[in-house]
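Translate sequence into structure tokens.
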Amino acid sequence: MNALLPERTAPVVDTLTVYGEAVGSRLFIGTALYPSPAVLAESVAAARAGLVTVSLRREQARGRTGERFLGWVREMGVRVLPNTAGCHTAQEAITTALMARELFDTAWIKLEVIADDDTLQPEVIGLVEAARELTAQGFKVFPYTTEDLSVADHLLRAGCEVLMPWGAPIGSGRGLNNIYGLRALRARVPGVPLVVDAGLGAPSHAAAAMELGYDACLLNTAIAKAADPVRMAEAFANAIDAGRQAYLAGIMPARDMAAPSTPMIGRAVL
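Result follows.
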């Protein structure tokens, strides 16, 4: 080994812990819209996903096909996070969560209460109400929310130990619509795991979220609807790793003016 180069030490293990449990990776992916179960399974493996989300309402609507799909998901060996997608009221979401706990034998639930079908924006009043009731019933709630600071405070007081603010409307691929709001939320709750959920369309969007200090990203459409979902899943996994490492390394602050990298002292004077 070159004596001038320091010996590299083993990397520090950087594990995400949520509700007291370690999660396998910082990339969570949805299971909808894939062209086939085989492509889904390959994409999950390529993403090195820590969690996969499953909509109970969607799979119930598919009848026996839904039953087979849930069997395929279990065979992947990745932790399942059931969600309440499609629910528009707190009571709908609570009922769906109770059914999901019975079906998947888990207290973890991604809680969605949707305000309207055009934007799929979280309905935050119903969201807080449902989070409070589900927490009281022993659930570990992962709320799909906005970046609003007061809503975050209400969800934390309701018992949530993780927050999942949207980057942009679900399926829009717009990335981080309100980077300033997301940065403010990160600063407001430095010890709370934060997951950017929805709206990410490119690996660079995921890297940007991780560079802000977010703990994970959850996405679906950008991978499932890609021309090559498996390759896209790997690209997102690499982006998540790069963004996290950059955040831990310490990203240089932006400047308004140039700053020379070569010292001025010692330059030639004519």
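Note: The radius of gyration is 21 Å.
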